[in-house]
Amino acid sequence: MAKDFNSQLVVDGYDEHIRKLIPGYELIHQQIQSILKLHLQENAHVLIIGCGTGYELNYLLAAHPNCTFTVTELSENMLNQARQNVQATGQAYRVNFVLGSHTDFEVPEVFDAVLCILVTHFIEQDAKPLFLAKAFELLKPQGIFLSFDLMLSQSSVELDILPQFCQAQGLTKHQADKMMQRLADDFELISQSDYQTLLTKIGFEHIYCFSQIFSYAAYWAVKS
Description:
Blueprint: H1 8-21, H2 25-39, E1 45-49, H3 55-63, E2 68-73, H4 76-87, E3 95-99, E4 111-117, H5 128-138, E5 139-150, H6 156-168, H7 173-185, H8 192-202, E6 205-213, E7 216-222
Parallel strand pairs: 1-2, 1-4, 2-3, 4-5
Antiparallel strand pairs: 5-7, 6-7
Helix pairs in contact: 6-7
């Protein structure tokens, strides 16, 4: 059964649970932060697709005090949690919270960067081209796109290691077994080579896998 991201129980435990599920979760965000520190202009406008509870939004607000942000989220409860977390810092005036998808946005070339972290692997295969093409359309020229997703495994060894790793991070065996079942039932996985080909067809350039842990891969691409 697919996880209900609008469940308040799921939302309340998300930030703790995700760190047990995703190898290198903190490291990926540290890398994203470093990339954006290097590439963002002082007054950049950033789109976060699928902001969840707002973890990346909060550290980016702190690191880029003159930037503004638009965040999308399909789960109303997740979006409300992100809004509450930002309001607690007094920075909500810098954020446009959108319940819905970026694919509904109509104004092109408005963002300096688009972040899509742990989202695309949930998008159905037939919908991925439009999903990613819209992110490209919303970027300004020279804007950067950053993603981090589970990719189609290149070896069964990765699938053997992953549940063991997650148990070492704090999951119970039952939770690890449920996680592996969800990977089979709920995720729409694409190979890294097909993902890079798709980004290229859309028009992205300088496509680069800047981090990989097991089958999780982080990509950076530029709208030249």
